[in-house]
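The following record pairs a protein chain with its ligand, adenine.
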Amino acid sequence: MPSYAPVKPSDFANMRLDILTLFPNMMSMFFEESILSRAQKKGIVEVVFHDLHDYSLSRYGSVDDYPYGGGAGMVMAVEPLANCIEELKAQRTYDEIIYTAPDGEMLSQPMANTLSLKQNLMILCGHYKGVDERLREHFITKEISIGDYVLTGGELAAAVIADTVIRLIPGVIGDEQSALGDSFQDGLLAPPEYTRPPEFRGWRVPDVLLSGNHAKIEQWRYEQALQRTKERRPDLIKAISEK
Ligand code: ADE
């Protein structure tokens, strides 16, 4: 099991995350609570929202237009979004410019681990029928889906991506080991957890957890994780054995 020296936030370069959205207020509420808020207050991560309406070329503040070739729905136009992205790119170098889309690469723990090591990330939240394909071709470096279902907009996907990435940055979660023990981190689901009291309505905490024998506890946790993964996600076991 890897061990880490205590981390001071100042030991780490901050991550900056720029989120381009039509709904900055909806997004910012999510970041004002809990771990994401603490990570920002500790100075480990800076999250900046950009309202795409501010880049509208129309009098009405719209950034979408009818699709060429007809059909229902609107498409986010290339020029206002390109202007926003280019303004940010002129200020710093981005490790990834991410677009949230149901046809993107599926978000996974290994992907989150990789992104958590980056310094500057940008996430463009899609909406309506999506964005003009030229944006994807010329600006976007990574396209991420959070699952095989369609959301009304990319904001929830961006929030999920930000949450899973930011909590992995050293110093964000108090106990460094706890992020390493997460489900998926070693390819297995996490084992069951218990806290006090040792007995409730006759339901007892497994004796091994009260034994104080750390080697036995680790072994029990591993076996439980393996059993749980076999039962619930046999596909993960297959993936490990094929590695
Ligand atoms: N936008 C709409 N649906 C999405 C999904 N499943 N993942 C990411 N972005 C999306």
